[in-house]
Write a structure and sequence with these properties.
Largest sheet: none
Number of strands: 0
Number of helices: 8
Shape: rod-shaped
Helix content: over 70%
Distance between the termini: 154 Å
Oligomer: single chain
Structural class: mainly alpha
Order of helices and strands: HHHHHHHH
Radius of gyration: 60 Å
Length: 202
């Protein structure tokens, strides 16, 4: 009988000292929070979601996990799209670099061809200068040579060569050389010399 009374006294003590004041305090707190404008239901749900075993009971944890998975999937898709865009841009850059390299090679070839042509022009100009000097020396030789010796040499060489030399010889020396030629040779070379001088005149 005493044991039952002790158990009853303990339960009564727990009810009056712990449980009833706790419930009273929670009720007062909820009333105060409601008057303060706090959404008590929403706050209690958020609190329950953060407590592991309660969130499993309410199922909110599953929703959060599902949302997290969906967010992860969206992030993977965006990452894949970005990687594809980077690959595309990299391919375009490589293509442009190839075009630039091709253009550079064309420019180098053009520069080499230009340099080659310039060298050929220099060689031709040098050859022409040498020919002019050689022709000048030949003309000087025939002018200083006795007309009687020069005339037979000129008549025996090809007419084109003879005409080129005769066209450079001074008038006095030319007349003296022509006098030493046979009339037929003198007439032929005179005609060709006249035609040559007409062609040289612009």
């Amino acid at each position: 009988m005493d044991k039952e009374e002790k158990k009853y006294n303990r339960l009564q003590w727990f009810l009056f000292v712990v449980l009833i004041p706790l419930l009273f305090t929670i009720t007062i707190a909820l009333i105060v929070l409601s008057f303060a404008g706090v959404n008590v239901m929403h706050a209690s749900k958020s609190l329950a979601d953060n407590i592991p075993f309660i969130s499993k009971m309410t199922g909110s944890g599953d929703k959060n996990n599902k949302a997290a998975k969906e967010g992860s999937t969206d992030s993977k898709k965006e990452l894949a799209q970005l990687e594809a865009g980077i690959k595309s841009k990299t391919a375009e850059v490589a293509k442009l670099e190839n075009i630039i390299d091709s253009k550079d090679q064309e420019i180098q070839r053009s520069s080499a061809e230009k340099q080659q042509l310039e060298n050929e022009i220099k060689d031709l100009n040098a050859a022409q200068a040498d020919n002019k000097r050689a022709m000048k020396d030949i003309v000087t030789t025939y002018e200083t040579m006795a007309p009687k010796k020069a005339a037979p040499i000129l008549t025996k060489m090809p007419d084109d060569n003879a005409v080129k030399i005769l066209s450079k010889i001074k008038a006095a020396s030319l007349a003296a050389i022509m006098e030493q030629m046979q009339p037929a040779d003198a007439a032929r070379l005179t005609k060709k010399l006249t035609d040559f001088n007409q062609q040289q005149t612009p």
